[in-house]
Amino acid sequence: MKLSLCFSPCPNDTYIFDAMVHQKVDTEGLEFEYFMADVEKLNSAAFEEKPDVTKLSFHAFMHVAGRYLLLDSGAALGFGAGPLVISQQLKHFDELKGKTVAIPGIYTTANLLFSLAMKKAEVLKKELLFSDIENAILSGEVDAGVIIHESRFTYQLKGLHKLMDLGEFWEQLTGSPVPLGGITAHKRLGNEVIAKVNRCIGRSIEFADSHKGELNEFIRCNAREMDDTVMQKHIDLYVNEFSVSLGTQGKLAVNQMFEYAIAAEIIAKMPENIFAADI
After folding, report:
1. Is 59 marked active-site?
2. Are residues 254 and 196 in the same domain?
3. Using an 8 Å Cβ cutoff, are 155 and 135 in contact?
4. Domain end marker among 174, 194, 213
């Protein structure tokens, strides 16, 4: 059985999925036709219900949770792993009101967290590809930006500074790890196939972890001009125990994010079931 699988070209995703898509582990008769794109493009594709299995921002997942289920393996959650709000000219987060702020996509978790942190204060948001945000700040196109992925390791080298760590904001608010993105499967696949996919991801992570410290060609050729040190930092930050299994703590964090989004009137209600393991 062949399934469509979508994920980002970022090192954490290629690290997780390499063994699975290249048949280095037992895939229980499943084959994966994979497609890689920026996470906001993945979010958009899921709104059209195109992929069978896809990486999604948790913000986007909130809007398709009636059709996709969250798998137990492959997610990006963590402490100290949240998006950052950065600027060149502004000095404090409370100076953002009325300013232009770059975001890496409307349906990214970064934008959701930024909206929660800003409360009702108004800013002009400008959607940019995440890798273009630093340069947009430096050129004066925007006053500040919300950065994700490897940008958190490089922004200071460009003379930019942090106004707020949105991960710390979330951790102080909830005491939970920040849910960034998860792997979801369309309900049309059925319980048996979804369970197989989840086991395949688990094996793929186990294979990658058994070769930890080795940056293979699949990771390198898809990374955005990163050096090995940045790629390894990226993997170490975003692939952790919650990637192996959400567990009780991870599921609590996801439920909390839904609850805060409902309270902020970002979504209307919590679906009855969002976790594949709960079927």
Report:
1. no
2. yes
3. no
4. 174
How far is Cα 242 from Cα 250, in angstroms, rounded to an integer? 6
Q: Minimal CA–CA distance to 183: which of 3, 24, 2, 23? A: 3
Q: Which residues touch 142 (CB under 8 Å, ≥6 apart)?
A: 100, 101, 102, 126, 128, 133, 136
pLDDT digits (tens, 9 = 90+) for 234-279: 899 999 999 999 999 999 999 999 999 999 999 998 888 899 965 5
**DSSP string for residues in 92-139:** SGGG-TTSEEEES-TTSHHHHHHHHHHTT---EEEE--GGGHHHHHHH
CA neighbor of 67 nearest in space, from 85, 87, 86, 47: 47
Please identify which of the residues 59, 63, 149, 186 carries the catalytic annotation: 149
Q: What is the pLDDT of residues 191-223, one digit of tens each?
A: 999 999 999 999 999 999 998 877 888 999 998
Q: How many domains does the chain have?
A: 2
Pick the last residue of a domain from 124, 149, 174: 174
Burial label for 122, CB within 10 Å (0-12, 13-18, 19+), is exposed
Token pair in block for residue 63: 């809007």
Domain encompassing residue 257: 2-77+178-278
